[in-house]
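User: Batch of two.

Assistant: Item 1 of 2:
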Amino acid sequence: MELPAEFVTLYTGLDRQGPGEPQDVNWAVARLGLGGGLRVCDAGCGSGADLQTLAAALPDAWLEGVDAMPHLVAEARDRLGSRADVRVGDMGALEGPFDLIWCAGALYFLGVTEGLRGWSRALAPGGVVAFSHPVLLSDAEPEAVAAFWQEYPAITRREGLEAQVAQAGFEVVDRRHVIGLPWGRYYDGLARRIEALKPGADAAMAAVLEAAEREISLWHKAPDRIAYLLVLARAA
């Protein structure tokens, strides 16, 4: 996937490329009762933050990370060393078999139903997918929420998301919202990166930085209403 150089520059060197925290991974592992010599894939692994947590939570597991962005794969390899096999690839074409496919905030690139149907062929018997995805908390959200999600018109409430999971032939094992602090920490890091890049930024870089600042500003207007849903789903 070819991205503008300015976008790559902005998102290089960040701890992670979207909202989330180690507690998300640890909750999923505990809730699913995972352990032992499992095969685990982080689809859309970014720079490897969640892979690092998976490695700590599942010390006997074989870990694979897949991302389309070579610069993020390089960062993840530096982070994980030999603990995980991290490669540039298409997360929509996983082979497996995996006992767990983890995907933080990236399934929307494939579409929920389409992505899960594809991943069902990469799951071992009894395997589980854990993914976080944008959701609305109600049918009547503040204007800032609509503005924040304007580039993702397919966003729906929890019930709509779970219907898409069911359409893919999966059943929801459990779910929980990702709201507030994980987003704040992510945006704090992004804001520091923006400030570091502003001196000497050319017009193209300045435009990318301005768009990122607008995203952060919109989040600050409704931090308790902008959410992901972290879903644990197993093939029915």
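Item 2 of 2:
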Amino acid sequence: MKTTYMNLDKILDLKKWRNLQDSLALVTKLAIVTVNYKGVPISQHSSVRPFCETMRKNPNTAKLCEKCDARGGLEAVRTNAPYIYLCHWNIVDIAIPIIIDDKYVGAIMAGEVKIKDGDKHPPLEQMLTVPSKGFEQNLNNNEEIQRLYDSIPTLSYTEINDAAQMLYRLCNYIVEEAMNKNLILEVYEKMAPVKEDLSTEDISYGYSLDNIQNIKKELANTVTNAYVKTSINDHLVCKNKVLQPAFDYIYKHKREKISQQKMADLCHISTGYFSRIFTKETGMNFSVFVSLKKIEWSKQLLEKTDLSIAQISDELGFNDPGYYIKTFKKYENITPNVYRKYYQEKL
């Protein structure tokens, strides 16, 4: 994957995201801003509270706000889940991490609300404590600041938590779909000559998130086959011609989770007979043969690409990355990550 994938402003269509963010802020009654991995905002601040806006405009109080944001973001990354906490003014904030391939690329910062009086809720961590002198006195002695503070809306903890979970799921879905689109564009750039008058915008124009996923599936075998080469020992011609359709299908559809029943039907023979002659042809049963081939192909992807373990698992039809890692270790006695690291150290 390109390193630009780790730049959140390259993954998201910021114009569309800002419109969605405004709508989400309106529906959830939360103030929302999106920041990159450095904590720098990449979107406008939707529904910002006048009190918080005033505090952030003051160089002294803004430092406290930034420290709270930074610490809240770190806790969200550590737990890989929305983190609900209290800022130095006892205002509820939420840090929602955006993590791609185990890398923190940014966060949605939401909140700027207070919990309703008497509402029962789990204890919330207060990130910073306001000094007893100075800022707290300014709050108490400034009627306008006090009015702005009192105007901060209140929600129940349940409402806050439900909104946080919804934003987390929605954000991950949107980022995943955006990356699917970016992957298609990268594949196009690598696999096909691009004319000077043809831009990537022309390619993606008119595609919805739904059919982008379908296009990705159609391209998957092409992508994998571009990196996975068949060796002389893997010659597709087998001794028993009855089995040839099955071998052709296995090698052509590396992404699929192929069943023995489907291959038997493809060869127009019973499953039992297919099993017997397949074992005689290869010296192993069908499931072991397919697993070994997929592990061998995955080793080439580990060597030649920077695809993540989850992506390689998906490209070769393992469905679950954990199952892929377990299968790889079963046959290679090491994990895919260790194999890749060892291979790269040899270069």
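DSSP finds 16 helices and five strands in the chain.
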